[in-house]
Amino acid sequence: MSTSNGNPDRLEAALERLVDQIAMLAAYTVESTQKQDQAQDRLADQISMLAVHTVESSQKQEQAHQKFRADLVEMSKKQDQAHEKLMAELAEIRNITDRQTENVSLLVKIVDKLLPS
């Protein structure tokens, strides 16, 4: 090789260093791209797992909410039934008390008639 400054060895050595540096840069670029692709794949996997977990969690929460509502409805029905039974028993007690009051009143009248005045 000949150069205008007359130093072909220096130029050739510089070109070899430049070629080596370009090769190293190319290798580094390929390695970096591969690492970036791997990192993006891992991130995509994590996002996918998070999405699945979020959906499953939402479904479980909805199922728990539905069960809670069903339990509340059932408890409300039982409470209503107990209240109706209690009210029926109270009505029966009132009827018995009213009859006892009437009986006592009749007894008082009978005793009044039997006792000499």
Explain the overall architecture.
- The structure is a single chain.
- This protein is mainly alpha-helical and 117 residues long.
- It is built from one helix and no strands.
- The protein is rod-shaped.
Strand-residue proportion: under 5%
Oligomeric state of shown chains: single chain
Helix-strand sequence: H
**What is the helical fraction, as a range of percent?**
over 70%
Radius of gyration: 49 Å
* N-end to C-end Cα span: 159 Å
Main β-sheet description:
none
- Sheet/helix structural class: mainly alpha
Assign an overall shape.
rod-shaped
Tally of DSSP β-strands: 0
- Total number of helices: 1
Summarize the structure.
The protein has 117 residues and is mainly α. The protein has one helix at residues 8-114.
